[in-house]
Specification:
- The chain is of the alpha/beta class and 396 residues long.
- The protein folds into two domains: 2-126, 3-Layer(aba) Sandwich (Rossmann fold), CATH 3.40.50; 161-395, Histidine kinase-like ATPase, C-terminal domain (Heat Shock Protein 90, 2-Layer Sandwich).
- The protein is 48% helix and 19% strand.
- The chain has nine helices and twelve strands.
- Strands 2-1-3-4-5 form a five-stranded parallel beta sheet, with helices on both faces.
- A hairpin with a 2-residue loop joins strand 9 and strand 10.
- Helix 5 crosses helix 7 (243-260), helix 6 (202-231) crosses helix 7 and helix 8 (279-296) runs antiparallel to helix 9 (363-373).
- The protein starts with 20 loop residues before the first strand and ends with a strand.
């Protein structure tokens, strides 16, 4: 039925949905009157709309929402197969159930209707009890489908809010360290400016100017990294990512935290790697993994975070990978299987940790979902008294 593609659902600025509605499409006035009478008795809360062929039905659907469509198969201008197929191809109407009516009982005719996207097929002459029962079933299914769509939308909104909340928490933590680092930059610049004021010759000042230029660039990079990280939300557009640049920005943002906690950091880029993804969200995930590593190192003699990255084969699939390796106390065996679940934390006395402040238990959940959004995997590669290795793989 390739000729169907020449017809489309008309475009309108706004579609109305004042009352629940049932659309009847049939070229027979008698059949329309019969169906309308059946519907009036059992579906009095629904407005019944009438169209006499498929194209007229499409014009009505372009103007307002309906809850179910009852269509004859054999009609002039546009038949029921074509009409149903167009409805199912349009995003605005693809979820509306279509019940096809026909006097044709052959299996191939029924199959043709179902292939076009029909939810049901009723053979004429119609029997009111059967029609009412089938309509109730499909209206019920659509009701539950609409509820599921609403729940999915609410879940997506809640997930976005969760990611943003966790991100703002990270921004607050990082901002304190960045402000301290930026203050150091300003203090060094002030020192070199005072030194320059004591020089009489331009040649004597030039070395100090060169150092100040480096400090300005360092300050700009700190601010730019922080702004880039803080502005990227769940609406961030997918784009090309150079993995080494992401890791370097993470290092810059977290360097004050590493210093404050006395944690040594080592970056090991094993190979150059580019991928498509969401740079700020990926940064957030890596920062969360590294923060967990820093906190796990608290009270340890050796405090070290190693971030390995590059590309390699995992299960015969080429992937970008990131390993965050810490020398912390490891993840307790009791929560290893649920470590990525919401509200699971090892921080705080109640959770069995050595910190007085409990964690939210959301950081790893958010990170896990971010990696899943990149069609990747995250797992605990190993953990124990010698530390934990978190492995992220994203197919290229």
């Amino acid at each position: 039925m390739s000729h169907v593609t020449c017809y489309k659902l008309p475009v309108t600025q706004q579609r109305l949905h004042i009352l629940p509605a049932i659309l009847i499409v049939d070229d027979s006035e008698v059949e329309c009157a019969l169906l309308k009478g059946i519907l009036h008795k059992s579906f009095s809360a629904y407005e019944v709309l009438i169209a006499h062929h498929g194209r007229e039905g499409l014009e009505l659907l372009a103007q307002r929402d309906v809850d179910i469509v009852l269509s004859d198969m054999m009609m002039p201008v546009m038949n029921g197969w074509e009409f149903c197929e167009i409805i199912k191809k349009d995003p605005r109407t693809k979820d509306v159930p279509v019940l096809l009516f026909s006097s044709l009982e052959q299996v191939q005719e029924k199959a043709k209707g179902f292939e076009a996207g029909a939810a049901d097929y009723i053979v004429k002459p119609i029997e009111s009890g059967e029609v009412i029962a089938r309509i109730k079933v499909h209206l019920g299914l659509k009701h539950y489908q609409d509820q599921l769509k609403d729940l999915n939308r609410e879940l997506k909104e809640a997930q976005d809010a969760l990611v943003q909340s966790e991100k703002m928490s990270a921004v607050g933590t990082l901002a304190a360290g960045i402000s301290h680092e930026f203050n150091n930059v300003l203090a060094m610049m002030k020192g070199y400016i005072q030194l320059s004021q004591q020089k009489n010759k331009l040649d004597d000042v030039k070395p100090a100017l060169a150092v100040m230029l480096d400090l300005v660039e360092r300050g700009q990079f700190l601010v730019r990294s922080m702004l880039d990280f803080s502005k990227g939300g769940m609406s961030e557009n997918k784009q090309k990512i150079v993995l080494a640049q992401i890791i370097d920005k993470v290092r810059v943002l977290m360097e004050p935290m590493f210093k404050a906690q006395g944690v040594q950091v080592e970056l090991q880029g094993k190979s150059s790697c580019e991928l498509q993804g969401y740079p700020n969200q990926l940064s957030q995930a890596i920062i969360n993994f590294a923060k967990n590593g820093i906190e796990a190192c608290e009270g340890r003699t050796e405090k070290k975070i190693t971030i390995e990255f590059g590309k390699s084969l995992f299960d015969r699939v080429e992937c970008a990978y990131i390993r965050v390796i810490d020398t912390g106390a490891g993840i307790p065996e009791s929560i290893r299987k649920c470590i990525f679940d919401p509200f699971v934390t090892t921080k705080g006395v109640i959770a069995g940790g050595n910190r007085s402040t409990a964690g939210t238990g959301l950081g790893l959940t958010v990170s896990y979902n971010i990696i899943k959004k990149h069609h990747g995997e995250v797992k605990i590669e190993k953990t124990g008294s010698a530390g934990t290795t978190m492995l992220v793989t994203i197919p290229l």
